[in-house]
Design goal:
Blueprint (H helix, E strand, L loop, with lengths): L2 E5 L5 H10 L1 H4 L9 H10 L6 E7 L4 E11 L5 E8 L8 H14 L6 E6 L4 H9 L3 E12 L2 E11 L11
Parallel strand pairs: 4-5
Antiparallel strand pairs: 1-2, 2-3, 3-4, 5-7, 6-7
Length: about 170
């Protein structure tokens, strides 16, 4: 199955919200995606700037695989962003998010000219830990009560990759 990425747009609202509803039990411990038309509109507004980008990962049958976000891009001497992502049922656990993330990382280090990406993962999220390490991210540290997810401050392991460390996965582009 092939994977493509595209910027999240208003026309994706119905499919996106349906995927979030269908995937609630998979996502709710790890992320807080938009789950209403109002929240989706706020998502579009936030990711309609040059500081944040949001991409949908789609399978060749047009089903949604997941969402990948580049957040809080800092330019100048830093050239860095935070990478966030979540998968949608029923396409999780098939290696499709790895391909989609690889495409977004390629875009970040080439077209967006970033130097560093940081991914913060809750230690209990073993699937996500395997995913980022399979993409070449290295563990940098541990942040206590780092992000508020679902109304609760959660610890996160900090992973990062720089353009120099990144290996192009030629099967993803």
């Amino acid at each position: 199955m092939s994977v493509s990425i595209c910027p999240v747009e208003a026309s994706h609202e119905v499919a996106f919200l349906d995927a979030v509803r269908r995937s609630k039990s998979l996502i709710e411990s790890w992320a807080a995606p938009p789950d209403s038309p109002e929240a989706f509109a706020r998502h579009l507004e936030k990711y309609g700037t040059d500081r944040c980008y949001s991409f949908l990962a789609k399978a060749d049958d047009d089903s949604l695989i997941g969402c990948i976000n580049l957040n809080e891009i800092v330019r100048g001497a830093f050239q860095s962003a935070y990478l966030g992502y979540y998968a949608f049922v029923p396409n999780q656990g098939k290696g499709l998010m790895r391909a989609a993330l690889s495409s977004v990382i390629y875009l970040a280090f080439t077209a967006l000219d970033l130097h560093r990406l940081e991914a913060n993962v809750q230690p209990a999220n073993s699937r996500s830990l395997r995913l980022v390490t399979s993409l070449g991210f290295r563990l940098e540290g541990f942040s206590v009560r780092y992000l508020n997810v679902g109304g609760e401050w959660k610890d996160h392991a900090r992973y990062a990759i720089t353009r120099e460390e990144w290996r192009v996965d030629s099967n993803s582009h």
